[in-house]
Amino acid sequence: xxVITSTDRTFRQMVKRAASRSTLHGGVVENAAKTILKAxxxxxxxxxxxxxxxxxRVTLKPAQLRISPEQVKEAYYQIRKEExxxxxxxxxxxxxxxxxxxxxxxxxxxxxxxxxQVVMPLDAVGLYVPGGKAVYPSSVLMCAIPAxxxxxxxxxxxxxxxxxxISPYLLVAADIAGVDEIxxxxxxxAIGAMAYGTKTIGRVDKIVGPGNMYVATAKRLLYGLVxxxxxxxxxxxxxxxDERANPAHVxxxxxxxxxxxxxxxxxxxxxxxxxxxxxxRQVGEQMKRLSRQKxxxxxxxxxxxxFVVGTMxxxxxxxxxxxAEHLTLSVDRPFDYLEKVRHAGAxxxxxxxxxxxxxxxxxxxxxxxxxxTARFFSALxxxxxxxxxxxxxxxxxELAKVKDHVVRMAQMEGFDAHAKSLESRLS
Length: 427
What we know:
- The mean pLDDT is 95.
- The chain is globular and about 85 Å long.
- It is of the alpha/beta class.
- It folds into 3 domains: 2-22 and 233-363, Rossmann fold; 27-112 and 121-228, Rossmann fold (3-Layer(aba) Sandwich); 395-426, no CATH class.
- It has helices at 11-19, 27-43, 45-56, 69-76, 81-99, 137-150, 168-177, 187-196, 213-222, 247-258, 273-287, 293-303, 312-322, 355-360, 396-413, 416-426; strands at 2-5, 106-110, 113-121, 124-128, 154-158, 181-183, 206-208, 227-228, 236-241, 265-270, 305-308, 326-330, 346-349, 386-394.
- The N and C termini lie far apart (77 Å).
- It has 16 helices and 14 strands.
Protein backbone atom coordinates (compact mmCIF):
# COMPACT_ATOMS: atom_id res chain seq x y z
CA UNK A 1 0.00 0.00 0.00
CA UNK A 2 1.63 3.23 -1.18
CA VAL A 3 1.50 6.63 0.48
CA ILE A 4 1.07 9.44 -2.05
CA THR A 5 1.11 13.08 -0.96
CA SER A 6 -0.47 15.93 -2.91
CA THR A 7 3.02 17.27 -3.73
CA ASP A 8 4.14 14.03 -5.40
CA ARG A 9 4.46 14.15 -9.20
CA THR A 10 2.35 11.00 -9.51
CA PHE A 11 -0.48 12.26 -7.28
CA ARG A 12 -2.94 13.18 -10.06
CA GLN A 13 -2.04 10.05 -11.99
CA MET A 14 -2.83 7.87 -8.95
CA VAL A 15 -6.09 9.74 -8.30
CA LYS A 16 -7.10 9.23 -11.92
CA ARG A 17 -6.30 5.55 -11.61
CA ALA A 18 -8.42 5.26 -8.46
CA ALA A 19 -11.32 7.06 -10.14
CA SER A 20 -11.15 5.10 -13.43
CA ARG A 21 -12.51 1.64 -12.74
CA SER A 22 -15.11 0.76 -15.33
CA THR A 23 -17.38 -2.22 -14.65
CA LEU A 24 -17.60 -3.01 -18.37
CA HIS A 25 -15.68 -6.12 -19.44
CA GLY A 26 -13.94 -6.98 -22.68
CA GLY A 27 -14.92 -8.98 -25.70
CA VAL A 28 -13.85 -12.37 -24.37
CA VAL A 29 -16.17 -12.13 -21.38
CA GLU A 30 -19.03 -10.65 -23.40
CA ASN A 31 -18.77 -13.26 -26.18
CA ALA A 32 -18.75 -16.10 -23.65
CA ALA A 33 -21.81 -14.66 -21.91
CA LYS A 34 -23.63 -14.23 -25.22
CA THR A 35 -22.94 -17.85 -26.18
CA ILE A 36 -24.32 -19.20 -22.92
CA LEU A 37 -27.36 -16.91 -22.97
CA LYS A 38 -28.24 -17.92 -26.52
CA ALA A 39 -27.94 -21.60 -25.58
CA UNK A 40 -30.22 -21.15 -22.56
CA UNK A 41 -32.77 -19.22 -24.61
CA UNK A 42 -32.92 -22.07 -27.12
CA UNK A 43 -32.31 -25.10 -24.93
CA UNK A 44 -33.90 -24.17 -21.60
CA UNK A 45 -33.33 -26.68 -18.82
CA UNK A 46 -31.04 -28.91 -20.88
CA UNK A 47 -28.65 -26.00 -21.55
CA UNK A 48 -28.74 -24.97 -17.90
CA UNK A 49 -27.90 -28.52 -16.83
CA UNK A 50 -25.12 -28.80 -19.41
CA UNK A 51 -23.39 -25.61 -18.26
CA UNK A 52 -23.88 -26.52 -14.61
CA UNK A 53 -21.98 -29.74 -15.23
CA UNK A 54 -19.29 -27.89 -17.19
CA UNK A 55 -18.63 -25.05 -14.76
CA UNK A 56 -19.75 -26.36 -11.36
CA ARG A 57 -18.95 -30.04 -11.98
CA VAL A 58 -22.35 -31.04 -10.65
CA THR A 59 -24.70 -33.29 -12.65
CA LEU A 60 -28.39 -32.55 -12.17
CA LYS A 61 -31.69 -33.70 -13.59
CA PRO A 62 -34.49 -31.18 -14.25
CA ALA A 63 -36.34 -32.34 -11.13
CA GLN A 64 -33.24 -31.58 -9.04
CA LEU A 65 -32.86 -27.96 -10.09
CA ARG A 66 -35.29 -26.67 -7.48
CA ILE A 67 -34.59 -26.93 -3.75
CA SER A 68 -37.53 -28.57 -2.00
CA PRO A 69 -39.27 -27.14 1.11
CA GLU A 70 -38.05 -30.22 3.02
CA GLN A 71 -34.43 -29.38 2.16
CA VAL A 72 -34.95 -25.84 3.42
CA LYS A 73 -36.38 -27.13 6.71
CA GLU A 74 -33.45 -29.52 7.07
CA ALA A 75 -31.04 -26.57 6.76
CA TYR A 76 -32.20 -25.21 10.13
CA TYR A 77 -30.77 -28.32 11.80
CA GLN A 78 -27.40 -27.73 10.17
CA ILE A 79 -26.72 -24.34 11.76
CA ARG A 80 -26.41 -23.25 15.39
CA LYS A 81 -29.29 -21.54 17.17
CA GLU A 82 -27.28 -18.35 17.69
CA GLU A 83 -26.53 -18.22 13.95
CA UNK A 84 -30.23 -18.40 13.18
CA UNK A 85 -30.85 -15.70 15.80
CA UNK A 86 -28.27 -13.44 14.09
CA UNK A 87 -29.97 -13.91 10.70
CA UNK A 88 -33.39 -13.12 12.19
CA UNK A 89 -32.02 -10.05 13.99
CA UNK A 90 -30.50 -8.76 10.74
CA UNK A 91 -33.73 -9.48 8.86
CA UNK A 92 -35.77 -7.47 11.35
CA UNK A 93 -33.42 -4.50 11.03
CA UNK A 94 -33.41 -4.64 7.23
CA UNK A 95 -37.20 -4.85 7.13
CA UNK A 96 -37.61 -1.93 9.54
CA UNK A 97 -35.38 0.28 7.41
CA UNK A 98 -37.03 -0.58 4.10
CA UNK A 99 -40.53 -0.20 5.54
CA UNK A 100 -39.64 3.47 5.99
CA UNK A 101 -38.97 3.74 2.25
CA UNK A 102 -42.53 2.82 1.31
CA UNK A 103 -44.36 5.05 -1.15
CA UNK A 104 -48.06 4.74 -1.87
CA UNK A 105 -50.42 5.53 -4.71
CA UNK A 106 -51.32 9.23 -4.68
CA UNK A 107 -53.76 11.53 -6.49
CA UNK A 108 -54.80 15.16 -6.43
CA UNK A 109 -57.52 17.30 -8.01
CA UNK A 110 -56.61 20.13 -10.38
CA UNK A 111 -59.99 21.69 -11.03
CA UNK A 112 -61.74 19.15 -13.27
CA UNK A 113 -58.68 16.93 -13.74
CA UNK A 114 -57.56 14.07 -11.53
CA UNK A 115 -53.82 13.49 -11.62
CA UNK A 116 -51.58 11.10 -9.75
CA GLN A 117 -49.50 7.97 -9.74
CA VAL A 118 -50.20 4.30 -9.05
CA VAL A 119 -47.43 2.48 -7.17
CA MET A 120 -47.51 -1.28 -7.70
CA PRO A 121 -45.05 -4.12 -7.03
CA LEU A 122 -43.34 -6.08 -9.76
CA ASP A 123 -44.84 -9.52 -10.38
CA ALA A 124 -41.63 -11.55 -10.12
CA VAL A 125 -38.04 -10.81 -9.14
CA GLY A 126 -34.94 -12.99 -9.53
CA LEU A 127 -32.20 -12.89 -6.91
CA TYR A 128 -28.69 -14.05 -7.80
CA VAL A 129 -26.51 -15.15 -4.88
CA PRO A 130 -22.87 -15.90 -5.74
CA GLY A 131 -20.95 -18.92 -4.56
CA GLY A 132 -17.33 -19.90 -4.74
CA LYS A 133 -15.04 -17.69 -2.66
CA ALA A 134 -17.56 -16.92 0.09
CA VAL A 135 -21.11 -17.51 1.30
CA TYR A 136 -23.42 -14.48 1.41
CA PRO A 137 -26.58 -15.00 3.49
CA SER A 138 -26.52 -11.25 4.14
CA SER A 139 -27.01 -10.60 0.42
CA VAL A 140 -30.03 -12.90 0.42
CA LEU A 141 -31.61 -10.80 3.17
CA MET A 142 -30.66 -7.49 1.55
CA CYS A 143 -32.10 -8.42 -1.85
CA ALA A 144 -35.19 -10.39 -0.87
CA ILE A 145 -36.58 -8.42 2.08
CA PRO A 146 -37.13 -5.13 0.22
CA ALA A 147 -38.94 -7.11 -2.49
CA UNK A 148 -41.31 -8.57 0.07
CA UNK A 149 -41.79 -5.16 1.72
CA UNK A 150 -42.75 -3.84 -1.72
CA UNK A 151 -45.29 -6.64 -2.16
CA UNK A 152 -43.57 -8.75 -4.84
CA UNK A 153 -45.52 -12.03 -4.95
CA UNK A 154 -42.82 -14.24 -6.43
CA UNK A 155 -39.16 -13.98 -5.40
CA UNK A 156 -36.84 -16.50 -7.07
CA UNK A 157 -33.31 -17.24 -5.89
CA UNK A 158 -30.51 -18.87 -7.88
CA UNK A 159 -27.17 -19.87 -6.39
CA UNK A 160 -24.39 -22.10 -7.75
CA UNK A 161 -24.38 -25.73 -6.61
CA UNK A 162 -21.44 -27.70 -5.31
CA UNK A 163 -20.88 -31.36 -4.55
CA UNK A 164 -21.23 -30.47 -0.86
CA UNK A 165 -24.67 -28.98 -1.51
CA ILE A 166 -26.08 -25.50 -1.01
CA SER A 167 -24.92 -23.73 2.14
CA PRO A 168 -27.53 -24.07 4.92
CA TYR A 169 -26.90 -20.42 5.78
CA LEU A 170 -28.23 -19.40 2.36
CA LEU A 171 -31.27 -21.64 2.66
CA VAL A 172 -32.17 -20.40 6.14
CA ALA A 173 -31.65 -16.77 5.11
CA ALA A 174 -33.87 -17.31 2.07
CA ASP A 175 -36.60 -18.83 4.22
CA ILE A 176 -36.43 -16.01 6.77
CA ALA A 177 -36.58 -13.42 3.95
CA GLY A 178 -39.62 -15.04 2.31
CA VAL A 179 -38.00 -16.32 -0.90
CA ASP A 180 -40.59 -18.38 -2.79
CA GLU A 181 -38.41 -20.53 -5.08
CA ILE A 182 -34.76 -21.58 -4.77
CA UNK A 183 -32.75 -23.13 -7.62
CA UNK A 184 -29.30 -24.71 -7.48
CA UNK A 185 -27.91 -23.04 -10.60
CA UNK A 186 -25.34 -20.29 -10.97
CA UNK A 187 -23.35 -18.26 -13.45
CA UNK A 188 -24.59 -16.87 -16.75
CA UNK A 189 -26.91 -19.83 -17.18
CA ALA A 190 -28.83 -18.83 -14.05
CA ILE A 191 -29.22 -15.25 -15.28
CA GLY A 192 -30.44 -16.54 -18.64
CA ALA A 193 -32.89 -18.99 -17.07
CA MET A 194 -34.47 -16.26 -14.94
CA ALA A 195 -34.67 -13.82 -17.86
CA TYR A 196 -35.95 -16.17 -20.58
CA GLY A 197 -37.72 -18.74 -18.45
CA THR A 198 -37.41 -22.51 -18.87
CA LYS A 199 -39.78 -25.43 -18.36
CA THR A 200 -38.70 -25.59 -14.71
CA ILE A 201 -37.97 -21.92 -13.96
CA GLY A 202 -40.57 -19.28 -14.72
CA ARG A 203 -39.24 -16.00 -16.08
CA VAL A 204 -38.93 -12.93 -13.88
CA ASP A 205 -39.29 -9.20 -14.50
CA LYS A 206 -36.11 -8.05 -12.76
CA ILE A 207 -32.80 -9.60 -11.68
CA VAL A 208 -30.85 -8.27 -8.70
CA GLY A 209 -27.79 -9.31 -6.75
CA PRO A 210 -24.00 -9.37 -7.10
CA GLY A 211 -21.89 -11.74 -9.17
CA ASN A 212 -18.60 -12.17 -11.03
CA MET A 213 -17.72 -10.43 -14.29
CA TYR A 214 -19.62 -13.01 -16.35
CA VAL A 215 -22.78 -12.63 -14.27
CA ALA A 216 -22.53 -8.83 -14.37
CA THR A 217 -22.06 -8.91 -18.14
CA ALA A 218 -25.02 -11.26 -18.61
CA LYS A 219 -27.24 -8.90 -16.61
CA ARG A 220 -26.12 -5.97 -18.73
CA LEU A 221 -26.78 -7.86 -21.98
CA LEU A 222 -30.29 -8.80 -20.85
CA TYR A 223 -31.28 -5.33 -19.69
CA GLY A 224 -34.39 -4.41 -21.65
CA LEU A 225 -35.73 -7.96 -21.70
CA VAL A 226 -35.68 -7.71 -17.92
CA UNK A 227 -34.79 -4.90 -15.56
CA UNK A 228 -31.64 -5.15 -13.44
CA UNK A 229 -30.47 -3.42 -10.28
CA UNK A 230 -27.04 -2.34 -11.57
CA UNK A 231 -23.87 -3.64 -13.22
CA UNK A 232 -21.78 -4.25 -10.12
CA UNK A 233 -18.01 -4.47 -9.93
CA UNK A 234 -15.56 -5.33 -7.12
CA UNK A 235 -16.14 -3.97 -3.61
CA UNK A 236 -14.79 -0.52 -2.76
CA UNK A 237 -14.05 1.48 0.38
CA UNK A 238 -12.64 4.97 0.77
CA UNK A 239 -11.79 6.15 4.29
CA UNK A 240 -11.40 9.83 5.07
CA UNK A 241 -9.47 10.15 8.34
CA ASP A 242 -8.09 13.09 10.30
CA GLU A 243 -5.01 13.09 12.52
CA ARG A 244 -7.06 11.92 15.53
CA ALA A 245 -8.23 8.70 13.84
CA ASN A 246 -7.07 5.38 15.27
CA PRO A 247 -4.74 3.81 12.64
CA ALA A 248 -5.58 0.29 13.84
CA HIS A 249 -9.28 0.94 13.27
CA VAL A 250 -8.72 2.47 9.84
CA UNK A 251 -6.51 -0.43 8.79
CA UNK A 252 -9.09 -2.94 10.02
CA UNK A 253 -11.79 -1.25 7.94
CA UNK A 254 -9.63 -1.29 4.80
CA UNK A 255 -8.88 -4.99 5.31
CA UNK A 256 -12.56 -5.68 5.95
CA UNK A 257 -13.37 -4.57 2.41
CA UNK A 258 -10.22 -6.02 0.82
CA UNK A 259 -11.10 -9.56 1.94
CA UNK A 260 -14.08 -9.65 -0.43
CA UNK A 261 -12.06 -10.14 -3.59
CA UNK A 262 -8.59 -9.82 -5.10
CA UNK A 263 -9.91 -6.92 -7.18
CA UNK A 264 -11.48 -5.04 -4.25
CA UNK A 265 -10.46 -1.37 -4.22
CA UNK A 266 -9.63 0.37 -0.93
CA UNK A 267 -7.97 3.69 -0.24
CA UNK A 268 -7.31 6.16 2.54
CA UNK A 269 -7.52 9.93 2.21
CA UNK A 270 -6.07 11.82 5.16
CA UNK A 271 -4.68 15.19 6.17
CA UNK A 272 -1.94 13.48 8.22
CA UNK A 273 1.09 11.85 6.62
CA UNK A 274 1.97 10.32 9.99
CA UNK A 275 -1.45 8.66 10.16
CA UNK A 276 -1.09 7.38 6.59
CA UNK A 277 2.22 5.69 7.42
CA UNK A 278 0.81 4.24 10.65
CA UNK A 279 -2.16 2.83 8.76
CA UNK A 280 0.08 1.23 6.13
CA ARG A 281 2.11 -0.40 8.90
CA GLN A 282 -1.07 -1.62 10.63
CA VAL A 283 -2.40 -3.05 7.37
CA GLY A 284 0.76 -5.12 6.98
CA GLU A 285 0.63 -6.40 10.54
CA GLN A 286 -3.09 -7.15 10.71
CA MET A 287 -3.11 -8.85 7.31
CA LYS A 288 -0.89 -11.65 8.61
CA ARG A 289 -3.61 -12.76 11.05
CA LEU A 290 -6.46 -13.03 8.53
CA SER A 291 -7.87 -16.32 7.23
CA ARG A 292 -8.24 -14.81 3.74
CA GLN A 293 -4.71 -13.40 3.76
CA LYS A 294 -3.91 -14.35 0.17
CA UNK A 295 -6.99 -12.58 -1.21
CA UNK A 296 -6.37 -9.53 0.99
CA UNK A 297 -2.70 -9.33 0.03
CA UNK A 298 -3.53 -9.27 -3.68
CA UNK A 299 -6.20 -6.62 -3.23
CA UNK A 300 -3.94 -4.40 -1.12
CA UNK A 301 -0.94 -4.94 -3.37
CA UNK A 302 -2.80 -4.17 -6.59
CA UNK A 303 -5.24 -1.45 -5.66
CA UNK A 304 -4.71 0.12 -2.20
CA UNK A 305 -3.42 3.67 -1.90
CA UNK A 306 -3.11 6.22 0.92
CA PHE A 307 -3.55 9.80 -0.29
CA VAL A 308 -2.30 12.69 1.85
CA VAL A 309 -3.93 16.08 1.21
CA GLY A 310 -3.65 19.49 2.84
CA THR A 311 -7.18 20.08 4.11
CA MET A 312 -10.38 18.23 4.90
CA UNK A 313 -12.07 20.14 2.05
CA UNK A 314 -9.52 18.65 -0.36
CA UNK A 315 -10.20 15.21 1.10
CA UNK A 316 -13.93 15.60 0.40
CA UNK A 317 -13.18 16.79 -3.15
CA UNK A 318 -11.06 13.71 -3.73
CA UNK A 319 -13.76 11.43 -2.34
CA UNK A 320 -16.34 12.99 -4.67
CA UNK A 321 -14.02 12.48 -7.63
CA UNK A 322 -13.48 8.80 -6.81
CA UNK A 323 -17.18 8.20 -5.97
CA ALA A 324 -16.62 5.03 -3.96
CA GLU A 325 -19.16 2.38 -3.09
CA HIS A 326 -18.49 2.86 0.65
CA LEU A 327 -17.22 6.06 2.26
CA THR A 328 -16.13 6.25 5.90
CA LEU A 329 -15.68 9.60 7.65
CA SER A 330 -13.43 8.85 10.62
CA VAL A 331 -13.20 12.50 11.65
CA ASP A 332 -14.35 14.88 14.36
CA ARG A 333 -17.90 16.18 13.74
CA PRO A 334 -18.56 13.97 10.66
CA PHE A 335 -22.10 15.29 10.19
CA ASP A 336 -20.61 18.72 9.40
CA TYR A 337 -19.38 17.24 6.10
CA LEU A 338 -22.53 15.32 5.18
CA GLU A 339 -23.91 17.81 2.66
CA LYS A 340 -20.51 18.27 1.04
CA VAL A 341 -20.29 14.58 0.09
CA ARG A 342 -21.90 14.34 -3.33
CA HIS A 343 -20.93 10.89 -4.57
CA ALA A 344 -20.88 7.75 -2.43
CA GLY A 345 -22.98 4.60 -2.34
CA ALA A 346 -23.15 4.58 1.47
CA UNK A 347 -21.68 6.80 4.17
CA UNK A 348 -20.35 5.48 7.49
CA UNK A 349 -20.07 8.40 9.89
CA UNK A 350 -17.88 8.58 12.98
CA UNK A 351 -15.20 6.58 14.75
CA UNK A 352 -17.48 3.70 15.75
CA UNK A 353 -19.19 2.83 12.47
CA UNK A 354 -17.20 -0.01 10.89
CA UNK A 355 -18.33 -1.21 7.44
CA UNK A 356 -19.24 -4.60 8.93
CA UNK A 357 -22.14 -3.22 10.96
CA UNK A 358 -23.67 -1.81 7.78
CA UNK A 359 -22.92 -4.98 5.82
CA UNK A 360 -24.94 -7.08 8.23
CA UNK A 361 -27.29 -5.59 10.81
CA UNK A 362 -27.67 -1.80 10.58
CA UNK A 363 -30.61 -2.09 8.17
CA UNK A 364 -29.74 0.07 5.12
CA UNK A 365 -29.08 -1.98 2.01
CA UNK A 366 -25.54 -3.12 1.29
CA UNK A 367 -26.13 -3.64 -2.44
CA UNK A 368 -24.47 -0.43 -3.64
CA UNK A 369 -23.18 1.21 -6.84
CA UNK A 370 -19.54 0.50 -7.71
CA UNK A 371 -17.07 1.53 -10.39
CA UNK A 372 -17.80 5.25 -10.00
CA THR A 373 -21.51 4.79 -10.68
CA ALA A 374 -22.29 6.27 -7.27
CA ARG A 375 -22.27 9.53 -9.23
CA PHE A 376 -25.70 8.59 -10.60
CA PHE A 377 -26.89 5.29 -9.06
CA SER A 378 -28.37 4.65 -5.61
CA ALA A 379 -28.39 1.78 -3.14
CA LEU A 380 -30.86 -1.04 -3.72
CA UNK A 381 -34.17 -0.03 -2.13
CA UNK A 382 -37.94 -0.40 -1.99
CA UNK A 383 -38.15 1.64 -5.21
CA UNK A 384 -36.30 -1.07 -7.14
CA UNK A 385 -39.19 -3.48 -6.63
CA UNK A 386 -42.11 -1.31 -7.66
CA UNK A 387 -43.18 0.43 -10.84
CA UNK A 388 -45.18 3.59 -11.13
CA UNK A 389 -47.94 4.39 -13.61
CA UNK A 390 -49.24 7.90 -14.08
CA UNK A 391 -52.96 8.67 -13.66
CA UNK A 392 -54.70 11.25 -15.87
CA UNK A 393 -58.49 11.78 -15.85
CA UNK A 394 -60.12 14.89 -17.40
CA UNK A 395 -63.72 16.05 -17.37
CA UNK A 396 -65.19 17.48 -20.58
CA UNK A 397 -65.19 20.95 -19.07
CA GLU A 398 -61.53 20.77 -18.05
CA LEU A 399 -60.53 19.38 -21.44
CA ALA A 400 -62.21 22.37 -23.12
CA LYS A 401 -60.09 24.73 -21.00
CA VAL A 402 -56.79 23.30 -22.32
CA LYS A 403 -57.93 22.63 -25.88
CA ASP A 404 -56.14 25.55 -27.55
CA HIS A 405 -52.82 24.80 -25.85
CA VAL A 406 -52.96 21.13 -26.84
CA VAL A 407 -53.83 21.93 -30.45
CA ARG A 408 -51.04 24.50 -30.75
CA MET A 409 -48.44 22.08 -29.34
CA ALA A 410 -49.66 19.32 -31.67
CA GLN A 411 -49.30 21.68 -34.62
CA MET A 412 -45.76 22.60 -33.54
CA GLU A 413 -44.80 18.95 -33.70
CA GLY A 414 -46.70 18.22 -36.89
CA PHE A 415 -49.06 15.68 -35.29
CA ASP A 416 -52.54 16.35 -36.71
CA ALA A 417 -53.99 13.18 -35.18
CA HIS A 418 -53.07 14.43 -31.70
CA ALA A 419 -55.09 17.60 -32.25
CA LYS A 420 -58.01 15.75 -33.80
CA SER A 421 -58.17 13.24 -30.91
CA LEU A 422 -58.98 16.17 -28.64
CA GLU A 423 -61.15 18.16 -31.05
CA SER A 424 -63.36 15.15 -31.77
CA ARG A 425 -64.48 15.10 -28.16
CA LEU A 426 -65.43 18.78 -28.10
CA SER A 427 -67.03 19.30 -31.51
